Amino acid sequence: MKTVPYLLLGIFVATSAAAQAIYETQGKNGPVFSDLPSEGRDLPSPGTTEVTLPPINLSDAPAAAPAEQPAQTPPAETPAAYYRTLAITQPESGGTIHSNTGQISVQVAIEPALRAAQGDAIVVSLDGAALPSTHPTAQFEISASEWQAAAKDDVQHQLQVSIMDGAGKRLLTSEPQSFYVHRATRRHRAR
Fold it and tell me: Which residue ranges does the chain devote to CATH 2.60.40.10?
């Protein structure tokens, strides 16, 4: 509360000083400025002139320019940094799939979602061999012809997926996952 009277006093002094006349007199060493027309008198002495000052500028001072800092380019979100997790959810780890042709369904969990519109796709490796096709969705199938070309002649197989950008750069790779494939066979009984 005490600051209000001081604030009002400051405003009064500033406005009264702005309204007060300023006088210029020539001295031995150059002009002398005073708020009195001449020292000790109310009448101007010879050679004294009243100086007309421009109105007081009450606008705020321009903001100081920030200190110049070295130009830094903001780190662009790289596609590799975009993806946090990639895991195979189907076939299950250690699970068994029944398929006579080798055609199997694959589903992966990606966080955040695959950016297919930007050209990102899923590539698959089966038993260590890269399959030729890419997949723009998190659920797809390995075709019978891809299976025949890449799968080893074992019951246990290994699947691994990666996210690849449009330029062919691998961004994130899942852990390999082992699973089993059961094929129906026809056995002839000895008679």
Answer: 79-182
Does the pLDDT at position 52 exceed 80?
Answer: no
Give how far Cα 39 sits from Cα of 18, 24, 185, Å. 21, 12, 125
Report the candidate in 66, 100, 72 with the shortest Cα–Cα distance to residue 182.
100
Helical H segments across the chain, by residue range: 3-19, 79-82, 144-150
Of the two residues 81 and 146, the one the predictor is more confident about is: 146
Confidence label for 98 from pLDDT (cuts 50, 70 and 90): confident
Q: Is the pLDDT of residue 122 over 80?
A: yes
Q: What CATH number labels 79-182?
A: 2.60.40.10
Rg (CA), the chain: 43
Count CB atoms within 10 A of the CB of residue 99.
15
- From CA 88, how far away is CA 92, in angstroms rounded? 8
**Residue 51, C-beta contacts closer than 8 angstroms, at least 6 positions apart:** 21, 22, 23, 24, 33
Pair 38, 69: CB distance under 8 Å? no
With 0.70 as the threshold, say if the pTM is over it. Answer: no
How far from 140 is each of 41, 110, 179, CA to CA, in Å? 103, 14, 17
